[in-house]
Amino acid sequence: MTSQPFGLQHSIRFGEDFELDLRPRRLRRGSHVLKLERIPLEILILLLEHRGEIVNRDEIVARVWGNDVFLDTDNSIRGAIRKVRRALKDDPETPRFIQTVTGRGYRFIAPIISPEGEHTEPPKPEAAVVSTVTQSFVSEPDSWPQGGSPGLMDQEQERTAGQVPGTETTRGQVHRRLRTWIFVGLGSLAVVSILSLLAFWGWRGSPAPTVFQRKTVLAVLPFDNLSRDPDQEFFSEGLTEEMIAQLGKLNRDRLKVVARSSVAKYKGSKLTAKEIGRELNADYLVQGSVRRSSDRVRITIQLILARDQTDVWTESYDRELKDVLAVQDSVGRSIASEIHIALNEEQEKRLAAPRQISPEAYEAYLKGRYYWNKRTGESMQKAEQYFEQAIDNDPTYAAAYSGLADCNSGLTWHGFKSPAEALPKAYAAARKALEINPESAEAHASLGLAMTHSWDWTGAEAEFRRALQLDPQYANAHHWYGDYLSIRGRHGEALAEAKHALELDPLNLMISTWVGLRYYMARDYSRAIDQNRNSVELDPNFAAAHLMLGQDYLGAGLHSEAVNELKKAANLSGDNPLYTAQVAVALAVEGRSGDAFRIAHDLEAISRKRYVSPYGLAQIYAASNKKEDTFKWLQAAYDDHAAWMGYLAVDPVFDRYRSDERFKDLLRRVGLP
């Protein structure tokens, strides 16, 4: 009895009790629906359509992904075949269903059970030429799902190809048809081969189309906190950041993951997935929710194709808190499969063996990152405490050491801690992170930042370059490396790195503000003003943006605007001494030296109770043209190892002193050009 093309059936039965439904598409064993993702399911259908024939890589790519999209499909195909075999409990060494034909492809070898219960054996391998050629004459049924193709002979062709000859005339007809089909098939193959060869040489001689170069862009939106406890907000935000970090470590040549700062504004957003995707230029969105209860957590993840808001994949995980890292790795593997991102051997190995971590350490780490991202003096000091708590609970937690290093670098740069207190901790923590994980881009960048503040210029550049080699998409590495290059007077390179960091994380306020700082140090004040006005518009309460904009105004000669802007910065910073010093600098440049000196004296009095950077006092006296006081405080800043001392070679405030031998000597001692 002839079999009916699958495109006209609702289901396909094979083996003892497997059944593949076509509308909707799902694989069942008896009454139990087997879990099989879309790509493996499509490949199984393709193999069933061509049962008994070898289906090669190009046929699978054309069917599942299309010929006009560049993908590293070899690993994706192998992974999908493994999933099909796992669902069918098929052994690749002694296959019952899917046979691997080395160097050629895959073949479905099990019999198909017709609706009447009869077993239909797959065609013999030698009949594959006939079957392949006749596909050209098969019309696609209107009911076949879009993107599918039956790839089967219609009933009349099956009767002709499979009839048993009863006379010499019938046998001769079959032989003539077979010769014709073989001739047509070989001719078609030759034409296709020639065209493919021409296309290949044409491609080699001309630039590749943009579609072949573009990375897939993925955005992880802020996870919803369903715990009904506002105090658990740190957990949902921290888990979002961790998921971004995990996905960002997948195939970086093919995948770009939007940075945390650029997705944060979509928390609670009413925009549709299509609108968010358009704003972020993202192909896929990941949405999630978290429900925390004591040491258990329920995480639901949804992968959405942004352009048409299609739900590509959804999964829920109910786990103990200690297993959260395993959940993240599982999500990473599933998403990579769904968006066709191949993983190398190292990535597969890492995802297959997730690190175990104590719930206490993980919770403390998430709290550390939550407060670190706020970037205020108070929040950074809280973050430092939580990172230390995470390390106390797990002394092998590399990421917590990196966080601790960044906290101490930030606290000394913003003037909340003395370099003597903060820099040794930053350096030691970054070193420990690298000892635990030498391949951590974050740890290398953290060490580079600590070395910059310690004036180890050669070591700093080596660490930044290593961080970018390990993770070219790590925005902070570009951001901090740009600051290093600016300090060294390499302004063109500095601006390129700063802009690259902003491309990777376009809504990061600190990065946006520091692009303006790169212009400022290069004396391009008009562009600096434009950039930092944008930063202020992004968040009018961000103190550092007002600080940099005030300095830009001062450089451009807009003195009253500078004073007003710098007063806003100082107020928003909680009267941070380093910010207050900049108000005095502007007052001095404006000609109000008396007001500037009063602030300087106040800061000197404050320094007896808490840390005040001597570099800020040196700037005030330099702007007031008090040479001896300037060098007195510059020497104090050198002795103190003040963080801003690194800017000495490019800081416009000191331009009038550059010919002084004492200034040149200071530059030499700090190791600046």
Q: What's the Cα radius of gyration?
A: 33 Å
Number of helices: 28
Chain-averaged pLDDT: 80
Poorly predicted tracts of residues: 1-8, 68-72, 126-186, 188-213
Structural class: alpha+beta
Identify the quaternary structure here: single chain
Shape: elongated
In what order do the strands lie side by side in the largest sheet?
A: 4-3-2-1-7-8
Instruction: Give the tally of β-strands.
Output: 14
Helix fraction? 55-70%
Largest sheet: 6 strands, antiparallel
Strand content: 5-15%
Roughly how many Å apart are the termini?
88 Å
Summarize the structure.
This protein has 673 residues and is α+β, with helices and mostly antiparallel strands. The strands form three sheets. A six-stranded antiparallel sheet has the order 4-3-2-1-7-8, covered by helices on one side.
